[in-house]
Amino acid sequence: MDELSPFFARFSLWARVFYSGRLCGSSSDHAGGRAGHLHVLRQGKLKVSGPDGRVRRVEEPSVLFYPRPLRHRFLTDGKPGAELVCAQIEFGAGMLNPLLEALPDMMVLPLSAMPGLAPTVDLLFAEAFGGEPGRQTAVDRLAEYFVVLLLRAAIKERLLKCGILTGLADARLSRALAAMHREPERDWSLEQLAAEANMSRARFAAHFRVVAGMTPFDYLADWRIGVAQGLLKRGEPLKIVAPSVGFRSSTAFTRAFACRTGLTPTEWLRRIRDADGVQESDKQLIPHARLSVAQ
């Protein structure tokens, strides 16, 4: 199994394109719910204002990716404006997704650094600016595919040096990470993980901490809780979930879960289901909503 597949298998990726057009002036705020945002700038220049009021200039075709909800808005200098496709993105919303947690709040990556994305960019804009039947479904699936390509490029080209993303790009650590992803229920020892990486125990522990910014067992704990959350959402009982992610009892699992999330499994599940109900209502409105722009 490749480096990214375990994350897409455990955490569902969802996208909804809500705007495509040429922005001339300023946008409304992008915020709300549990969704992050993906913006693809193909032409023009942008000023990006964050929640702290700071303004960042983007002066070449770029991807602006907000993995988690973060208030922001765009400004342009007027005509000819900026040609954009914008989407809401969810990737395991409300769950402990170690990959998502490792990403910065805002990523701005020039498209020139990711030439392999060019065909998908062309197809995304062709669909978004066209009027063919099934347009919404097509652009939504293309936006999801674009996120996969973006994360793939970030690992392959080492565009982001942050946490577990860097670990996935490391030939040795990626083998140990793959083992954890494959068998979260296994009672892993440091020696066993080091053997997966073909490293000594001490060297593996030190290298993992330097590259990933955490210990191997901190990462394993996060992965186990994220996997458990997916099982809980599917309706699996605690007595089944606990051993599936390496805990000998429901009590030990509940204690570890609360330590990582601040909630018991039951409290978390109630909260996530309530939020999912609200989010589903919001999703029904997105196809009819447009970004407020000054044309």
List the strand order in the largest sheet. Answer: 1-7-2-5-8
Number of beta-strand segments: 8
How many domain modules?
Answer: 2
Structural class: alpha+beta
Shape: globular
Q: How big a fraction of the residues is strand?
A: 15-25%
What is the makeup of the main sheet?
5 strands, antiparallel
- Helix and strand string, N-terminal first? HEEEEEEEHEHHHHHHHHHH
The Rg value, from CA coordinates, equals 21 Å
Count of helical stretches: 12
How would you sum up this structure, described in words?
The protein is α+β, with helices and mostly antiparallel strands and about 300 residues long. It has two domains: about 5-160, Jelly Rolls; about 170-260, Homeodomain-like (Arc Repressor Mutant, subunit A, Orthogonal Bundle). About 45% of the residues lie in helices and about 15% in strands. It contains twelve helices and eight strands. Strands 1-7-2-5-8 form a five-stranded antiparallel sheet, with helices on one face. Strand 3 (about 45-50) and strand 4 (about 55-60) form a beta hairpin. Helix 3 (about 120-130) packs antiparallel against helix 4 (about 135-155). The model is unreliable at about 285-295 (pLDDT under 50).
